[in-house]
Write a structure and sequence with these properties.
314 residues; alpha/beta; serine acetyltransferase, domain 1; UDP N-Acetylglucosamine Acyltransferase, domain 1; 2 domains; 5-stranded parallel β-sheet
């Protein structure tokens, strides 16, 4: 009978045999090495990385995140305090990530863990420029959406602003050859917003993602200034080139380029590293595009014929 069967790892009475279970879990260590890292002291701490990301929001958007009642004097004290903590913790996390990369035998590891302090200093020096660009993104969101009542609404409520904020932080770290940490940040934003932007994507000023759910922007995508995209847009690869050993080539241009002031409407798919959408062009909703467009053109899919019938006739 089912009640009398002895299940592996369970005693006859149905009590868990902990020793047996632990033995089976630890015996599989070699077989499942991809999903464990014993003694991996260098592996970045995801919780700390996300805490750093939260603190950076307090610096980039003072008064919106973190303390609310700030004046010019208290703002300087607040920013100084946050930057000191961020610098210390981020340096430790970057050093760990670089050490892990080297320990893992990554052939592309070009930066020593001892350079973490210089990398973090270089990153923090970029924060004023990131604030300038984010201010333009917020204004683009307000200008591009008649439903927005104020730029404050864009900062506090719009998933596109949250996604591009995290992207600009992650992209800056990515350009400094920091491994893992940019992806941790960006994938958190992906989960929070439904917008998937690879940290490697290069995005110009005044970028607006309207609604945003289901947007995918690949690693080698290049987006110019003043571009706007809607929900469900994919800027992806149409093929994955391989080397002579059959391995995927990494770092090659696989994703499209949008020149300045391009608009891509909901559900459009644009693929290919050699696909360039010319400045001022519009890609209509539902278009599947794998070739370039000249400037100031419109790409539209065939208009579907719709038939209306009285429900009583159906």
């Amino acid at each position: 009978m089912a009640g009398n069967r002895i299940i592996s790892g369970m005693t006859r009475e149905g009590e868990l045999d902990v020793d047996s279970l632990v033995g089976r879990l630890t015996a599989s260590s070699d077989e499942h090495h991809r999903i464990q890292h014993l003694s991996a002291t260098h592996l970045p701490n995801r919780d700390v990385v996300l805490w750093i990301l939260e603190q950076l929001h307090c610096v980039l958007y003072p008064g919106f995140f973190g303390p609310r009642n700030l004046d010019e004097d208290s703002l300087r004290v607040h920013v100084t305090s946050v930057l000191e903590e961020v610098r210390s913790d981020l340096t430790a996390q970057v050093a760990g990530a670089l050490g892990y990369q080297k320990e893992a035998g990554d052939e592309e590891c070009r930066v020593a863990a001892t350079d973490a302090g210089a990398i973090v200093s270089s990153f923090l020096e970029q924060l004023p420029e990131l604030r300038r660009r984010l201010s333009l993104d917020v204004q683009a969101a307000y200008d591009g959406d008649p439903a927005a009542h104020h730029t404050d609404e864009a900062v506090l409520c719009y998933p596109g602003i949250r996604a591009i904020t995290v992207h600009r932080i992650a992209h800056a770290l990515c350009r400094l050859n920091v491994p893992l940490i940019p992806r941790i940040m960006q994938e958190w934003a992906h989960g929070e917003t439904g917008i998937d932007i690879h940290p490697g994507a290069a995005i110009g000023d005044s970028f607006f993602i309207d609604h945003g759910t289901g947007v995918v922007i690949g690693e080698t995508t290049s987006i110019g200034n003043g571009c706007k995209i809607y929900q469900g847009v994919t800027l992806g690869a149409k093929s994955f080139p391989k080397d002579e050993r059959g391995r995927l080539k990494r770092g090659v241009k696989r994703h499209p380029t949008l020149e300045d002031n391009v608009t891509v409407y909901a559900g459009a798919t644009i693929l290919g590293g050699d696909t360039v959408i010319g400045a001022g062009s519009v890609v209509n909703g539902g278009v599947f595009l794998v070739k370039s467009m000249p400037p100031n053109h419109v790409a539209q899919a065939p208009i579907v014929e719709i038939t209306l019938k009285d429900r009583g006739d159906c």
